[in-house]
Specification:
322 residues; D-Maltodextrin-Binding Protein, domain 2; seven-stranded mixed sheet; rod-shaped; alpha+beta
Length: 322
């Protein structure tokens, strides 16, 4: 049914309810002329007269009475549906679909989700973490997080904080194997590498040399497609690896990890929050975006300062004597 027919039927039903085309026009926010024309077009479309119009008012014809009885339940259902949708848009309630990277991101995201759920218990989050970038429309995403830019055109991206890539080792590893003094010395160390879950490819280490960010292939003695598994191997002093500051910063500050070769640290990528047009967002989506930005934008918990890095840099020494 075309939209003009829906409006005409609604105008007709409202005119009968209020006993006046003029009152129906006021209720629907249109001119009396437009309301009268809508009813006339409906009558012409149906080929029957629905209303008797006089200077004293209006009354239903037999056909009009039959048509009203047939359409009134549908009109009432439509009005309830429209009211429900408008109410849902203004209420902080309902489903909230959130997507983000799987690798090591849960500890960044879930405290925000937990706080949001406490503030808005009527919201039901659906959190999907995946290192592959899906289809925004098909996945019905409300809010997304990605390391890098947005995954598709037409989305709004908000940078939250830079992601540092740190070469780290556990203190016990450095005591056992020494501290590398240069990138070339990494060839003599037990390194870990990350295999991207979506592609299966080994991810090179990213290092800064002068003003350039270079991809440096590393021969790993351990490869894994799970960040938590790699991190446990590094913490267990089995390997030395490159770790994102999102989850390395707290461990560095606690003394469980030691950054090395910090002059080659890179922060050329950032964590972004992305979403569609803000104009038509339900309140639950706007509220979550606002909280996520408030909690994560420029959050120092996930970034090490230059002063911290300088104070934590270990004294360089070669391999220990056997």
């Amino acid at each position: 049914m075309a939209i003009n027919e829906l409006r005409s039927i609604s105008t007709f039903a409202k005119a009968v309810e209020l006993g006046s085309i003029r009152r129906a026009a006021i209720a629907q926010g249109v001119t009396p002329q437009a309301a009268s024309q809508a009813i006339a077009q409906l009558e012409q479309h149906l080929g029957v007269r629905l209303l008797h119009r006089t200077t004293r008012g209006l009354s239903l014809t037999d056909e009009g009475q039959q048509f009203l009885e047939s359409t009134l339940p549908a009109v009432a259902m439509l009005e309830r549906a429209l009211h429900a949708v408008r109410g849902a848009k203004d209420e902080v309630a309902g489903p909230l679909r959130i997507v983000g990277p799987r690798s090591g991101f849960a500890q960044v995201l879930m405290p925000v989700v937990d706080e949001f759920c406490r503030q808005h218990p009527k919201v039901t989050p659906d959190v999907q973490l995946d290192d592959g970038i899906g289809n925004w429309v098909q996945d019905r995403v409300d809010v997304g997080f990605r390391i890098g830019g947005p995954p598709a055109e037409g989305l709004i991206a908000r940078r939250l904080f830079p992601v540092q890539l740190l070469i780290c080792a556990a203190p016990d590893y450095l005591r056992a194997h020494g501290t590398p003094a240069s990138l070339d010395e990494l060839a003599r160390h037990r390194c870990s590498v990350f295999r991207h879950p979506a592609t299966g490819h080994i991810t090179p280490w990213y290092v800064r040399v002068g003003q350039e960010v270079l991809h440096r292939p590393v021969a790993g003695v351990l490869s894994t497609n799970d960040v938590d598994a790699e991190l446990q191997a590094i913490l267990g002093a089995t390997v030395i690896g490159q770790v994102s500051s999102m989850y390395a910063a707290p461990l560095v500050r606690a003394g469980k990890l030691v950054p090395v070769l910090t002059e080659h640290l890179t922060d050329h990528i950032s964590l972004h929050l992305y979403y569609g047009s803000r104009a038509a967002q339900p309140r639950r989506v706007r509220a979550f975006i606002d909280l996520a930005v408030q909690r994560l934008a420029d959050n120092a918990s996930f970034v090490l300062t230059a002063k911290e890095l300088a104070s934590m840099q270990p004294r360089r020494r070669g391999r220990p004597h056997r």
